[in-house]
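@channel anyone free to eyeball this complex?
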Amino acid sequence: MSNSAQANVTRESRLALQPISVVEHGDAFLVGDPARSAFFAVPEVGVVALRALQSGARIADAETAAEAYAGQHVDVLDFAEVLVAAGLVESVDGRPIALDSASADATGGFIEGVRPELVRPFFSRPAWCLYALLLAACLIAFARRPELRPTFEAIFFLADPAASVVAGAVIGLLLGVCHEACHWLAARASGVGARFSVSRRLFLPVLETDLSQLWAVPRSQRWSPFLAGMAFDTVVLGAALGVRLAWNEGLIDPPPLAVRLAGAVVLLQVIALAFQTLVFLRTDLYAVLVTALGCFNLYRVSALVLRRRLRVLRPAEAAELAAAHPRDRRVANWFAALSLLGVAAAAWMFVVWFVPATVITAGWLFASLGGAPLGSTSFWQALALGSVAGLQAIVPLVIFTRERLRG
Amino acid sequence: MIARLRLFVPPLLIVACLAVLWKAPVRNVRPRDAPGRPVAVLPSPHIPVIGAHHPPYNSVPPTSGPHVPQTVAPGVYTQPLAEEIQVHVLEHGHVLIQYGAGLPPGQLSELRTVARRHPRDVVLAPYPPIDRGVALTSWGRVARLTTADERQIEAFIAAFAGRYVHGWTG
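replying in thread with the prediction:
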């Protein structure tokens, strides 16, 4: 049974609300429960009604206050039912409202554990200037020193190519974990928590940090958590590129393996940063874009706009699109086209690169397993290589299946 | 805050200026003027693993022929590379500089300096089949030097690095 169905809300009712955050976002306000990351946008008059309800006023009285502010009729009863349905109401006229299981599940998993003041220096204005300058220096170095640009061979940094692939996958995973951890640390610097998961973007497995609690803080405090992962990538790229440059200039003479490892790290971080530009895959820069444009749910609205253009929009989706914020609908007009281009490019990449690479890897794997004596070094190397390649192909499939099963 | 910010600016400006001022060396050595001799290119299929049976190579070190699907990144290696990997390295347009165990440390240091100058083009590794001296290989080309002659090596790299990448490039 849904929350709203079990509550009997009338114009005479008084609501006891959960702790609710109200944050200005463009020309609207984001209202929600940071603990559950449940937010929705309301106009300013909604905030007036909410404040009245929070003060213990009857719904009818809140409606009077809202109408006095807006100068026209405001349906606060409908608004109250939305609050109940969103799980933002503890009780109606003293009768407690139980959260449904989905809402209850959503309350967990947000990790805090680090005091904000400890991590703030890493996300201060001077620190961001440093990260930006470092990124600029890396780009200049790539532009002026072509020999420092990474090639895909760089991943084979060990004399044993199979060991290189396995080591590269492990290093990439560790760097990915650190990237996500930096999102979390920057969120802590802004005073909110985050939670982690494994997800997918089309056919690519990704680690993901849920930063939805950021909707409860002012927009100026969201940039840093969104960009923190890329800042980490930039610092690692700068360090690895610095090693390559200094070695190239004869300033240092580290062990050869360290130089080649730095080359592999440069490649991994360039890929990681380039991936973030694919905003249609809801990357970090997508979050930045949404925040900069003052949008709310651009990805979903763009998908709906696309479905409408393709004439496959269902009635419920049409209603959802009609209820979307006007700015989301406006931006979605071009973002949907960008997404379509991006998905087409990804489909091309899937056909031209991913499928052949998988087939070739599988071919190597079976040839190696068939040609190498059972239990030999070559046999185990092939098995390790196959495991890495297999995991990268299977994880998105598993996540896709899980998403379908959950509806 | 501005004062703190200033602390970060000089080192980054130095890095940026170094990057801007550097210019890539000009490659103007013609293949016929470069050291070494051409070697007939063999059929060069993939073989499943290092050590799998295949027809013999026609030079020491090899310059074409059967090879494994994997390769290695350009750079300096302190362990020998299997010949089946060497050929794949050459197939990607790189130059292999290999040396015998008897090469004096000073000359090895010079080879490392050359490899450092060409981080995308050169693979440097020991090669036990030659006792002394240096072997330079590219796709279909080999040169044997008695010493680490930097001028000869640079000429070889200038002439052949990137000349063949799964096909002749020019």
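from a first look: Residues 28-160 of chain B form a domain with the Glutaredoxin fold (CATH 3.40.30).
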